[in-house]
Amino acid sequence: MGRIGCIQALNALLMNGYAGGAEPELQHTLRGARLVQNGSVLSEVLSEAGPTHSVFDVLAAAIKLNKETRVGILGFAAGGVVAPLRAMNGRQDLYGVDLDEAGFKLFGRVSGDWRGNLKFVKSDAVKWLDAQQKPFDVLLEDLSIGRDGDVFKPAVSIDVLPDLIRSKLKPSGIAIFNLLPSNDRTWAEMIQVVSEPFKHGLIITFESFYNKVLILSVKPLTSTRKISRLLRKNLSGIQSSISSDIQVRTLRIIKS
Predict the structure, then answer these.
(1) Model's pTM, two decimal places?
(2) DSSP 8-state class, residue 4
(3) Paired strand residues for 151
(4) What are the extents of the domains in the chain?
(5) Burial class (CB in 10 A: 0-12, 13-18, 19+), 86
(6) Are strands 136-141 and 70-74 parallel, antiparallel or unpaired?
(7) Distance CA 122, CA 135 (A)
(8) How would residue 19 be classed by pLDDT, with cut points 50, 70 and 90?
């Protein structure tokens, strides 16, 4: 199928998968496509491995901090993190889960063999993760919900998943949370609840995005300065413009 025909097919696929003005819409780009909800990019799908010049690049660089291979992605959408991760020579085995498989179908049509070893399950993230017997080296939490013309972090990401994620990680594993505003809590309240099951953490903030990314673990992380250098090295290595947009700080975890 030609590029125009492929895009038309994808558009039909996404329109069949989503309904309503607040649901994700498909936008075509020169390098692939993206899913957008209420002005926020849920996923960037590239036809080749490379940078998205967005938060997805930072999530990929964070995954690369752990040298092991088993990575779970909660809220796969259309796999925006995969292209930058593979461009960074990340060869991790990826396990994605999402309630809607339309985004994964989009990813499958636009991406190529460079996607590597990737398995997807259409399921509720909590149910899927709770059923997993083999622990993960990295778990990326990237769920979101659209409401009233905006995109929020769902309550399950704050109240349920942090403890569950902690229980499903290897002792040396890391959890990565891509935080968005909460519908009913301040940033400080949300960050405290999400980070409480862990002992060590970092927070990444952006000049151009309101997301806040947490990197959390039970075992001590290397120094914040070294992690900042590693993140920027991975980002610069794929020529991602986001490398100059981030600030990396140690997160003080407050126990209730």
Answers:
(1) 0.88
(2) H
(3) 146
(4) 3-250
(5) buried
(6) parallel
(7) 20
(8) very low
Separation of alpha carbons 205 and 186, rounded Å: 16
Q: Which of 80-84, 105-109, 201-205 has the lowest mean pLDDT?
A: 105-109
pLDDT digits (tens, 9 = 90+) for 130-151: 999 999 999 999 999 877 767 8
Q: What is the pLDDT of residue 158?
A: 97
- CA gap 41, 237 in Å, rounded: 23
Widest CA span of the chain, in angstroms? Answer: 57
Letter for the amino acid at 197?
P
- Report the candidate in 232, 240, 178 with the shortest Cα–Cα distance to residue 53: 240
Judging by DSSP bridges, how do beta strands 246-250 and 200-206 pair with one another? antiparallel
User: Looking at the DSSP assignment, which residues form a beta bridge with residue 140?
Assistant: 73, 176
Strand partners, 71: 94, 138
Distance (Å, whole) CA 32 – CA 49: 11
29, β-bridge pairs? 32
Please report which confidence band the pLDDT of residue 33 belongs to, taking 50, 70 and 90 as the band edges.
confident
Beta carbons within 8 Å of 128's beta carbon, 6+ residues apart? 74, 97, 121
Q: Which two tokens stand for residue 92?
A: 């991790």
Q: How confident is the model at residue 50 (pLDDT cuts 50, 70, 90)?
A: very high
Q: What is the pLDDT of residue 21?
A: 39
- The CATH label, of 3.10.450.50, 3.40.50.150, 3.30.420.40, 2.60.40.1740, for the domain at 3-250 is 3.40.50.150
